[in-house]
UniProtKB/TrEMBL annotation:
GO terms for cellular component: cytosol. InterPro entries: Elp3/MiaA/NifB-like_rSAM (IPR006638), Methylthiotransferase (IPR005839), Methylthiotransferase_CS (IPR020612), Methylthiotransferase_N (IPR013848), Methylthiotransferase_N_sf (IPR038135), MiaB_methiolase (IPR006463), rSAM (IPR007197), rSAM_horseshoe (IPR023404). Monomer. Residues 413-475 form the TRAM domain. The keyword Iron applies. It is found in: Cytoplasm. This is tRNA-2-methylthio-N(6)-dimethylallyladenosine synthase. SMART domains: Elp3.
Length: 475
């Protein structure tokens, strides 16, 4: 079981359900007067964990009697779930909030809520209070489970409600409602927080310490997802390889995968994100042995320079990363590999950058997510000297993208003529290949075939390739 200090008691969860019912009754009265239910709008910035959090917020809003809307102008409650990992995401969120000032003036009764990682930063509540008077409710990552109570306070008289409390230990709140979008894909959080403190990263400061959900809770949620028809399920954590370190039970992430693989049903399990420091041969052996675990690995290396990796506090070397990839491929020759890279970290030299570019070319990734370094206030990297101009960083970024595209295209071309199992998940804009699907490795396939059905697995033969997509026909 998790540490009792981090688990929200069922009595506290029941208390939140009481607030949900209070608001639901208020909304029933409003619906009788208006002839329609009050509506709620949600928007998410940032990572998959944020998306999973928004689904819990949506579940609570649904329980409170709100109907979902995609239009802010129709909403009675607007919730924007924010990100703090990069400056761009923060600026976009605040820009959207600023645009809501006109809506607030026209409809003062609208409740505008801000939540998530951005607002958990120490300086942000005061900034919102002073510069964004249209915002009614602010709650941080540690107070998400108390959203019904906070919203009730706002609706029943409190002018503005701010709650970014909670210590770094964080919380695990089981039993809250979740409203997913349907379809084939689902997020399943297995842990929260991070203990790594990479020098560029704000996450440990806003998400708190690592805390693992009890394995039986995860198994139960997976069983429910499979029963509900989800077939592409991604296990989420800031560092899934640290799963179980805080539990009384002796269990690690590989053990959890083995347990989840035993759940009956036709589905695929993915996971993200893994940290090279904690990745192990045991993990790759387990992936190879589990038929329901996708042969897909997202393993961020960030830089190919040991000097930069040390300044980043990543805890591994480029050579160790290469060894991990070699072992993973020896166990799973068809594994799909992806990674994250930061270009322009403070102090990065041309030699450092070339080591990164060399590693990209050597490994041959299927997908890469490359970013220019984004300075985050409050992190050690923000105080590091940096005499490299933005123009130089941008030029390096573009050179790396060229190398990246060449390696990815080569990997894509290797699928020409191959037979792949895919999960059909939607429609495309094209007419020759009208459906979209994902391979076990997560690659996008536009496909065609009279026997293909959305939500079902099928075999296709790849007829064409491009940088971003494969094209296949059912067999």
């Amino acid at each position: 079981m998790p540490n009792n200090k981090t688990v929200v008691s069922q009595e506290q969860i029941a208390h939140q359900y009481e607030y949900m019912q209070f608001i639901a009754r208020m909304n029933e009265d409003k619906a009788q007067v208006r002839g329609q239910r009050p509506k709620a709008f949600t928007q998410t910035f940032g990572c998959q964990q944020n998306e999973a959090d928004t689904q819990r917020i949506a579940g609570m809003l649904d329980e409170m009697g709100y109907e979902k809307t995609d239009r802010t102008e129709d909403a009675d409650v607007i919730v924007i779930n924010t990100c703090a990992v990069r400056e761009h995401a923060e600026s976009r969120a605040l820009g959207n909030v600023g645009a809501l000032s006109h809506l607030k003036k026209a409809r003062p009764e609208v409740t505008i809520c801000l939540c998530g990682c951005m607002v958990q930063q120490e300086h942000m509540p005061d900034k919102i209070k002073k510069s964004y008077p249209q915002v009614d409710l602010v709650f941080g990552t540690h107070a998400l489970w108390r959203f019904p109570e906070l919203l009730y306070r706002r609706l029943t008289g409190d002018k503005r409600v701010f709650d970014t409390s909670g210590d770094a230990a964080g919380y695990i709140a089981e039993g809250l409602p979740v409203l997913r979008d349907g379809g084939t894909k689902a997020w399943l959080s297995i842990m929260y927080g991070c203990n790594n403190f990479c020098t560029y990263c704000i996450v440990p400061y806003v998400r708190g310490r690592e805390r693992s959900r009890a394995p039986e809770e995860i198994v139960h949620e997976l069983e429910q997802l499979v029963a509900d028809g989800y077939k592409d399920i991604t296990l989420l954590g800031q560092n899934v390889n640290s799963y179980g370190k805080d539990l009384d039970e002796q269990i690690d992430f590989s053990d959890l995968l083995m347990r989840l693989n035993e759940v009956p049903g036709d589905f695929l399990l993915r996971f993200m994100t893994s940290h090279p420091k904690d990745a192990s041969h045991k993990l790759f052996d387990t992936m190879a042995a589990c038929d329901k675990v996708a042969k897909q690995l997202h393993l961020p290396f960030q830089s190919g320079s040991d000097t930069v990796l040390k300044r980043m506090n990543r805890g591994y070397t480029a050579e160790h990363y290469r060894e991990l990839i070699a072992y993973a491929r020896s166990k799973m020759p068809d594994i799909t590999l992806s990674s994250d890279i930061i270009v322009g970290f403070p102090g990065e030299t041309e030699e450092d950058f070339e080591k990164t570019r060399t590693l990209v070319a050597e490994v041959g990734f299927d997908m890469l997510y490359t970013f220019l370094y984004s300075k985050r206030s409050g992190t050690p990297a923000a105080e590091m000297p940096d005499d490299t101009t933005h123009a130089v960083k941008q030029a390096r970024f573009e050179r790396l993208l060229k190398t990246q595209d060449e390696t990815v295209q080569a990997r894509q071309d290797a699928y020409q003529g191959k037979r792949l199992r895919v999960l059909v998940d939607g429609t495309s804009k094209g007419t020759e290949y009208p459906l979209t699907a994902r391979t076990e490795g997560g690659l996008l396939v536009c496909c065609a075939g009279d026997d293909l059905k959305i939500g079902e697995f099928a075999d296709v033969v790849i007829e064409k390739t491009s940088l971003r997509c494969l094209f296949g026909r059912s067999v």
